[in-house]
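Good morning N.,

You mentioned wanting to compare the apo and holo forms, so I went ahead and generated the holo version with zinc ion. This is what I fed in:
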Amino acid sequence: MIPLVYHPAYNVSAFGLERLHPFDGGKYRRIHDALIVRGLRRGKDFARPRPVSRQELLKVHRPEYLRSLQRSETLARALEVPIVRRLPCWLIDWRVLRPMRYATGGTVLACRLALEHGLAINLGGGYHHAAAGWGGGFCVYADVPLAVKTLRDDDKVGKVLVVDLDAHQGNGTASVFREWPWAKIFDLYEEDVFPAHKEAEDYPLPVPAGLAGDEYLDCVREFLPQALDEVRPDLVVYNAGSDPFAGDPLARFRLTASDLVDRELLVVSEVRERKIPLAMVLSGGYSKESWKLHADAIEGVLTRFDRAR
Ligand SMILES: [Zn+2]
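and this is what came out, ligand included:
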Protein backbone atom coordinates (compact mmCIF):
# COMPACT_ATOMS: atom_id res chain seq x y z
CA MET A 1 0.00 0.00 0.00
CA ILE A 2 1.20 3.51 -0.81
CA PRO A 3 1.94 5.26 2.52
CA LEU A 4 -0.32 8.23 3.25
CA VAL A 5 0.80 10.77 5.86
CA TYR A 6 -1.74 12.69 7.95
CA HIS A 7 -2.26 14.11 11.43
CA PRO A 8 -5.54 15.56 12.78
CA ALA A 9 -3.48 18.58 13.91
CA TYR A 10 -3.08 19.66 10.22
CA ASN A 11 -6.49 21.31 10.27
CA VAL A 12 -6.65 25.05 10.88
CA SER A 13 -9.38 26.68 12.91
CA ALA A 14 -9.07 30.12 14.47
CA PHE A 15 -12.52 31.02 15.79
CA GLY A 16 -13.97 31.44 12.30
CA LEU A 17 -11.20 33.82 11.19
CA GLU A 18 -10.03 31.17 8.72
CA ARG A 19 -13.21 31.93 6.80
CA LEU A 20 -11.81 35.36 5.91
CA HIS A 21 -9.39 33.57 3.60
CA PRO A 22 -10.68 31.40 0.72
CA PHE A 23 -8.64 28.55 2.19
CA ASP A 24 -10.63 25.64 3.68
CA GLY A 25 -9.00 24.97 7.06
CA GLY A 26 -10.67 21.55 7.39
CA LYS A 27 -9.74 20.32 3.91
CA TYR A 28 -7.14 17.80 5.14
CA ARG A 29 -9.62 16.09 7.46
CA ARG A 30 -12.20 15.96 4.66
CA ILE A 31 -9.71 14.23 2.32
CA HIS A 32 -8.69 11.77 5.05
CA ASP A 33 -12.32 10.98 5.87
CA ALA A 34 -13.29 10.58 2.19
CA LEU A 35 -10.51 8.03 1.61
CA ILE A 36 -11.83 6.02 4.56
CA VAL A 37 -15.49 6.29 3.51
CA ARG A 38 -14.54 5.14 0.00
CA GLY A 39 -12.91 2.03 1.50
CA LEU A 40 -9.40 2.90 0.29
CA ARG A 41 -7.82 3.11 3.76
CA ARG A 42 -8.60 2.46 7.42
CA GLY A 43 -7.89 5.07 10.09
CA LYS A 44 -4.87 3.17 11.40
CA ASP A 45 -3.28 2.99 7.94
CA PHE A 46 -2.17 6.65 7.96
CA ALA A 47 1.41 7.43 9.04
CA ARG A 48 1.38 10.18 11.71
CA PRO A 49 4.16 12.77 11.57
CA ARG A 50 5.54 14.81 14.46
CA PRO A 51 5.78 18.58 14.12
CA VAL A 52 9.12 20.04 13.03
CA SER A 53 11.20 21.70 15.75
CA ARG A 54 12.79 25.14 15.63
CA GLN A 55 16.15 23.39 15.18
CA GLU A 56 14.86 21.64 12.06
CA LEU A 57 13.33 24.85 10.69
CA LEU A 58 16.78 26.45 10.96
CA LYS A 59 18.03 24.05 8.27
CA VAL A 60 16.28 26.35 5.80
CA HIS A 61 14.98 29.45 7.58
CA ARG A 62 16.94 32.42 8.86
CA PRO A 63 16.76 32.90 12.66
CA GLU A 64 15.52 36.49 12.23
CA TYR A 65 12.65 35.26 10.04
CA LEU A 66 11.59 32.68 12.66
CA ARG A 67 11.80 35.44 15.27
CA SER A 68 9.63 37.72 13.09
CA LEU A 69 6.87 35.07 13.25
CA GLN A 70 6.37 36.16 16.85
CA ARG A 71 4.98 39.44 15.51
CA SER A 72 1.35 39.60 14.41
CA GLU A 73 2.20 41.94 11.48
CA THR A 74 4.52 39.42 9.80
CA LEU A 75 1.89 36.71 10.23
CA ALA A 76 -0.92 38.88 8.90
CA ARG A 77 1.17 39.46 5.77
CA ALA A 78 2.13 35.80 5.23
CA LEU A 79 -1.41 34.58 5.89
CA GLU A 80 -3.02 37.44 3.96
CA VAL A 81 -5.63 38.01 6.63
CA PRO A 82 -5.18 41.61 7.86
CA ILE A 83 -7.29 41.10 10.99
CA VAL A 84 -4.65 38.65 12.25
CA ARG A 85 -2.70 41.79 13.18
CA ARG A 86 -5.12 42.28 16.08
CA LEU A 87 -4.76 38.77 17.50
CA PRO A 88 -2.24 37.74 20.16
CA CYS A 89 0.68 35.85 18.66
CA TRP A 90 0.40 32.82 20.93
CA LEU A 91 -3.10 32.26 19.57
CA ILE A 92 -2.01 32.42 15.93
CA ASP A 93 0.93 30.20 16.73
CA TRP A 94 -1.32 27.55 18.30
CA ARG A 95 -4.17 27.68 15.79
CA VAL A 96 -2.37 28.36 12.51
CA LEU A 97 1.41 27.85 12.73
CA ARG A 98 1.34 24.67 14.79
CA PRO A 99 -0.83 22.91 12.14
CA MET A 100 1.72 24.04 9.54
CA ARG A 101 4.60 22.62 11.62
CA TYR A 102 2.77 19.28 11.73
CA ALA A 103 2.20 19.34 7.96
CA THR A 104 5.87 20.29 7.43
CA GLY A 105 6.83 17.26 9.55
CA GLY A 106 4.43 15.34 7.28
CA THR A 107 6.34 16.39 4.17
CA VAL A 108 9.63 15.23 5.75
CA LEU A 109 8.03 11.89 6.63
CA ALA A 110 6.45 11.49 3.16
CA CYS A 111 9.87 12.06 1.53
CA ARG A 112 11.46 9.42 3.79
CA LEU A 113 8.63 6.98 3.06
CA ALA A 114 8.91 7.69 -0.68
CA LEU A 115 12.55 6.56 -0.59
CA GLU A 116 11.50 3.33 1.14
CA HIS A 117 8.30 2.56 -0.78
CA GLY A 118 8.73 4.37 -4.11
CA LEU A 119 5.71 6.61 -3.59
CA ALA A 120 4.17 8.39 -0.59
CA ILE A 121 1.57 11.13 -0.22
CA ASN A 122 1.32 13.81 2.47
CA LEU A 123 -2.29 14.97 2.83
CA GLY A 124 -1.02 18.52 3.39
CA GLY A 125 2.10 20.67 2.95
CA GLY A 126 3.37 22.21 -0.28
CA TYR A 127 3.90 25.72 1.12
CA HIS A 128 5.76 26.81 -1.98
CA HIS A 129 5.55 30.60 -1.42
CA ALA A 130 7.76 30.40 1.70
CA ALA A 131 11.51 31.07 1.37
CA ALA A 132 14.44 31.22 3.81
CA GLY A 133 13.65 34.73 4.97
CA TRP A 134 10.07 35.46 3.91
CA GLY A 135 6.61 33.95 3.59
CA GLY A 136 3.43 34.81 1.67
CA GLY A 137 0.32 33.43 0.02
CA PHE A 138 -0.68 31.46 3.14
CA CYS A 139 2.78 29.84 3.27
CA VAL A 140 5.00 30.28 6.32
CA TYR A 141 7.39 27.30 6.39
CA ALA A 142 9.33 26.06 3.35
CA ASP A 143 8.36 22.42 3.97
CA VAL A 144 9.64 20.93 0.70
CA PRO A 145 13.10 22.58 0.81
CA LEU A 146 13.34 21.57 4.49
CA ALA A 147 12.44 17.94 3.72
CA VAL A 148 14.90 17.54 0.85
CA LYS A 149 17.69 19.28 2.81
CA THR A 150 17.07 16.89 5.71
CA LEU A 151 17.43 13.86 3.42
CA ARG A 152 20.46 15.36 1.71
CA ASP A 153 22.16 15.99 5.10
CA ASP A 154 21.44 12.32 5.94
CA ASP A 155 23.12 11.24 2.65
CA LYS A 156 19.85 9.72 1.45
CA VAL A 157 19.64 11.75 -1.79
CA GLY A 158 22.02 13.48 -4.19
CA LYS A 159 19.86 15.38 -6.67
CA VAL A 160 16.24 16.39 -6.19
CA LEU A 161 13.59 17.70 -8.61
CA VAL A 162 10.44 19.48 -7.48
CA VAL A 163 7.56 19.27 -9.97
CA ASP A 164 5.26 22.16 -9.14
CA LEU A 165 1.87 22.04 -10.89
CA ASP A 166 0.04 24.35 -8.47
CA ALA A 167 -1.45 27.22 -10.52
CA HIS A 168 0.88 29.76 -8.88
CA GLN A 169 4.64 30.00 -9.23
CA GLY A 170 6.58 28.23 -6.47
CA ASN A 171 8.60 31.39 -5.84
CA GLY A 172 9.60 30.45 -2.28
CA THR A 173 10.92 27.01 -3.23
CA ALA A 174 12.68 28.50 -6.30
CA SER A 175 14.32 31.15 -4.13
CA VAL A 176 15.72 28.53 -1.70
CA PHE A 177 16.83 26.24 -4.53
CA ARG A 178 18.86 28.99 -6.22
CA GLU A 179 21.49 28.48 -3.49
CA TRP A 180 21.44 24.68 -3.92
CA PRO A 181 22.82 23.42 -7.26
CA TRP A 182 21.62 19.87 -6.43
CA ALA A 183 17.94 20.91 -6.22
CA LYS A 184 15.93 21.86 -9.34
CA ILE A 185 12.37 22.98 -9.96
CA PHE A 186 9.99 22.30 -12.86
CA ASP A 187 7.11 24.72 -12.56
CA LEU A 188 4.00 25.16 -14.72
CA TYR A 189 2.07 28.21 -13.56
CA GLU A 190 -0.30 30.96 -14.67
CA GLU A 191 1.83 33.96 -15.61
CA ASP A 192 -0.41 36.88 -14.58
CA VAL A 193 -1.47 35.93 -11.04
CA PHE A 194 0.20 35.91 -7.61
CA PRO A 195 3.11 36.19 -6.95
CA ALA A 196 3.70 39.49 -8.74
CA HIS A 197 7.48 39.02 -8.71
CA LYS A 198 8.51 35.71 -10.28
CA GLU A 199 11.74 33.98 -9.25
CA ALA A 200 14.25 32.51 -11.71
CA GLU A 201 13.73 28.74 -12.10
CA ASP A 202 15.42 25.77 -13.79
CA TYR A 203 12.36 24.69 -15.80
CA PRO A 204 9.80 27.51 -15.76
CA LEU A 205 6.63 27.07 -17.85
CA PRO A 206 4.62 30.30 -17.51
CA VAL A 207 1.33 29.94 -19.40
CA PRO A 208 -1.52 32.38 -20.06
CA ALA A 209 -4.86 32.39 -18.19
CA GLY A 210 -7.66 30.22 -19.53
CA LEU A 211 -5.67 27.13 -20.47
CA ALA A 212 -8.02 24.13 -20.83
CA GLY A 213 -7.37 20.62 -19.51
CA ASP A 214 -6.14 19.04 -22.76
CA GLU A 215 -3.73 21.92 -23.49
CA TYR A 216 -2.47 21.84 -19.90
CA LEU A 217 -1.93 18.07 -19.93
CA ASP A 218 -0.19 18.28 -23.33
CA CYS A 219 2.17 20.82 -21.80
CA VAL A 220 3.06 18.48 -18.92
CA ARG A 221 3.37 15.52 -21.32
CA GLU A 222 5.68 17.46 -23.60
CA PHE A 223 8.06 19.04 -21.08
CA LEU A 224 8.15 16.93 -17.90
CA PRO A 225 9.93 13.87 -19.38
CA GLN A 226 12.75 16.09 -20.62
CA ALA A 227 13.28 17.63 -17.16
CA LEU A 228 13.24 14.18 -15.51
CA ASP A 229 15.77 12.83 -18.03
CA GLU A 230 18.08 15.83 -17.75
CA VAL A 231 18.12 16.10 -13.95
CA ARG A 232 17.94 12.34 -13.23
CA PRO A 233 16.95 13.06 -9.61
CA ASP A 234 17.11 10.62 -6.70
CA LEU A 235 13.78 11.97 -5.49
CA VAL A 236 10.91 13.93 -7.02
CA VAL A 237 8.63 16.00 -4.80
CA TYR A 238 5.35 16.75 -6.55
CA ASN A 239 3.52 19.91 -5.49
CA ALA A 240 0.02 18.87 -6.59
CA GLY A 241 -2.06 22.03 -6.06
CA SER A 242 -5.71 21.67 -7.06
CA ASP A 243 -6.06 25.35 -8.01
CA PRO A 244 -5.78 24.81 -11.81
CA PHE A 245 -9.42 23.65 -11.38
CA ALA A 246 -11.89 25.75 -13.42
CA GLY A 247 -13.87 26.74 -10.29
CA ASP A 248 -10.91 28.02 -8.30
CA PRO A 249 -11.25 31.68 -7.25
CA LEU A 250 -7.49 32.38 -7.22
CA ALA A 251 -6.48 31.16 -10.70
CA ARG A 252 -7.96 31.01 -14.19
CA PHE A 253 -7.10 27.63 -15.65
CA ARG A 254 -10.03 25.55 -16.89
CA LEU A 255 -9.26 22.02 -15.71
CA THR A 256 -12.10 19.69 -14.72
CA ALA A 257 -12.01 17.29 -11.76
CA SER A 258 -11.24 14.45 -14.15
CA ASP A 259 -8.37 16.45 -15.77
CA LEU A 260 -6.80 16.69 -12.30
CA VAL A 261 -7.07 12.91 -11.85
CA ASP A 262 -5.41 12.47 -15.27
CA ARG A 263 -2.70 14.97 -14.31
CA GLU A 264 -1.82 13.03 -11.14
CA LEU A 265 -1.74 9.72 -13.04
CA LEU A 266 0.45 11.28 -15.73
CA VAL A 267 3.00 12.67 -13.25
CA VAL A 268 3.11 9.52 -11.12
CA SER A 269 3.49 7.32 -14.24
CA GLU A 270 6.30 9.42 -15.75
CA VAL A 271 8.25 9.48 -12.48
CA ARG A 272 7.66 5.84 -11.49
CA GLU A 273 8.46 4.54 -15.01
CA ARG A 274 11.94 5.89 -14.41
CA LYS A 275 12.08 4.17 -10.98
CA ILE A 276 12.48 7.53 -9.24
CA PRO A 277 10.96 7.76 -5.72
CA LEU A 278 8.10 10.27 -5.57
CA ALA A 279 6.63 12.19 -2.64
CA MET A 280 3.41 14.08 -3.33
CA VAL A 281 2.20 17.09 -1.30
CA LEU A 282 -1.10 18.90 -1.77
CA SER A 283 -0.25 22.64 -1.89
CA GLY A 284 -2.94 25.18 -2.93
CA GLY A 285 -6.60 24.83 -3.84
CA TYR A 286 -9.23 27.39 -2.87
CA SER A 287 -12.51 26.25 -4.37
CA LYS A 288 -15.10 24.79 -2.00
CA GLU A 289 -14.63 21.40 -3.65
CA SER A 290 -10.82 21.45 -3.33
CA TRP A 291 -10.92 18.59 -0.78
CA LYS A 292 -12.97 16.46 -3.20
CA LEU A 293 -10.63 17.19 -6.12
CA HIS A 294 -7.70 15.94 -4.03
CA ALA A 295 -9.65 12.94 -2.73
CA ASP A 296 -10.64 11.95 -6.30
CA ALA A 297 -7.09 12.43 -7.59
CA ILE A 298 -5.57 10.43 -4.71
CA GLU A 299 -8.20 7.72 -5.24
CA GLY A 300 -7.06 7.54 -8.89
CA VAL A 301 -3.43 7.15 -7.82
CA LEU A 302 -4.16 4.53 -5.14
CA THR A 303 -6.40 2.52 -7.46
CA ARG A 304 -3.71 2.32 -10.09
CA PHE A 305 -0.55 2.16 -7.96
CA ASP A 306 -1.43 0.39 -4.67
CA ARG A 307 0.37 -2.88 -5.28
CA ALA A 308 -1.23 -4.76 -2.39
CA ARG A 309 -4.71 -4.22 -3.76
ZN1 LIG B 1 -1.62 28.03 -5.76
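Residues 89-117 form the longest helix (29 residues).

Happy to go through it together on a call whenever suits you.

Best,
F.
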